[in-house]
Amino acid sequence: MSRQTALVIDDERDIRELLTITLGRMNLDVTTAGSVAEARLRLAERKFDLCFTDMRLPDGSGQEIIELVSRQYPETPIAMITAYGNVDAAVVALKAGAFDFVSKPVDLAMLRRLVQTALKLGEERRSGTSLVESKLIGDSPAMEQVRATIAKLARSQAPVYISGESGVGKELVARQIHELGPRAGGAFVPVNCGAIPSELMESEFFGHKKGSFTGAHADKDGLFQVAQGGTLFLDEVAELPLHMQVKLLRVIQEKSVRPIGGRGEIAVDVRILSATHKNLARLVELGQFRQDLFYRVNVIELRVPPLRERKEDIPKLVGRVLERLARDSGEPPAKLRPEALKALLSYNFPGNVRELENVLERAVALCENRSIDIDDLRLLPAAPAETYDRSAMAERTAGAAEFPAHAPPGNTAPAAFNATGEMAIPADLAAAVAETERAAIMKALESTRWNRTAAAKQLGLTLRQLRYRLERLGIE
Ligand SMILES: Nc1ncnc2c1ncn2[C@@H]1O[C@H](COP(=O)(O)OP(=O)(O)OP(=O)(O)O)[C@@H](O)[C@H]1O
């Protein structure tokens, strides 16, 4: 078999030589170019399995080359060589279509892993194996669009921020991005950032050495080490406390972690995907999420549309859920009566696909002769459209809790606003805040039919945090 080939584009001779020697040791046949013009010639002469380009070249920019390769040679993965810590350049390159970046001075272990990933990626692109059938159900235009974006993003190593309401399928989308990409052989590690106690976060993410604090009885790998070679999915990323946001930013930029009590840095090769049902940009404005981290995790945003924007998908989803429930129970699948399907099609699903699953599970338990009638669905009466805007709602709750003066008018804060919607100065601030909190919690509980786990998720709280609030507010 002929050797695989790489093109290295850099105007610094030292870098060209270093990469030629290192890649040569990995059994790659290396060609070099010192300018954009020369790179164009080399690319036209033959096909490469992998490219590296510097950003600043004497006759143009590496971005031009990235765009050219992405457009004309889409089977060739291209990585950018950046100056250490130049996050802006890395972001620009990833947006332009680079699959990853290498920081100078080049870390050889990191480079080796990057090359392996890139070569695997190229093979997949040529064989088309990444076009495997998606586990995401639905063929509405909105879902097709999501699927096409997933296929594109799976090929990149860029951090992706997945936005969308609670229960729309953000985690499923993250899994697909992982499974369809070159990291599929590595682990997919989902982390609910809201569920880790703040004081344990550093050890959970970066690991610790035995004896580094009371209770550290043995060395422990952090989530980054567990996800080595794979993907770390930061679910509910908005819940990260500010001190962790700083640490995470450092890890993402430097691609290395330092376990608590550890002496050295450990290089980590992990792709970061993140999600939240909250409006992260708004939280940046409110000072609750660091702008620099937002910029870093949000290199590319993928919005998963709510179920009410893709109602065509409901019949297929219903079919799959009923099949799954039948498999679990060992009984034949239940069937929906036509009126029941009609009711589902005109329902707005504030809790999205998760709510649809819950509705069907309950209906299967309630129905007679495995035939689901409209009454078995127990759908909530239609609520005002505003109720469905979970992100706005969560954000409003967060904003109201921290900055009552900024809370917009609405029925989530009856005590703090007068009839014309103007902010009234509350005579008792604590009581007004408690009232706002109570109203938001009640709304979430009602919309989830008192499913506390689902309500906690909608409110961006852990179950424990919600229980505590219920107790404090005396809600049974
Ligand atoms: N398109 C889909 N096809 C099949 N199942 C789906 C789809 N979208 C969502 N689901 C199912 O809906 C449920 C909720 O999905 P998921 O946990 O991915 O949502 P989420 O957006 O991450 O929710 P949250 O914001 O609450 O964490 C899961 O059981 C998932 O399998």
UniProtKB/TrEMBL annotation:
Superkingdom classification of source: Bacteria
UniProt cross-references to PROSITE patterns, sorted A to Z: RESPONSE_REGULATORY, SIGMA54_INTERACT_1, SIGMA54_INTERACT_2, SIGMA54_INTERACT_3, SIGMA54_INTERACT_4
Annotated SMART domains: AAA, REC
Residues with 4-aspartylphosphate modification: D54
Record keywords, A-Z: ATP-binding, DNA-binding, Nucleotide-binding, Phosphoprotein, Transcription, Transcription regulation
Protein's UniProt keywords contain Nuclease: no
Occurrences of domain Sigma-54 factor interaction (ranges): 136-365
Response regulatory domain: residues covered: 5-119
InterPro entries: AAA+_ATPase, AAA_lid_NorR, CheY-like_superfamily, Homeodomain-like_sf, HTH_Fis, P-loop_NTPase, Sig_transdc_resp-reg_receiver, Sigma_54_int
Transmembrane stretches, start-end: none
Protein name in UniProt: Sigma-54 dependent transcriptional regulator
Organism of origin: Tahibacter harae
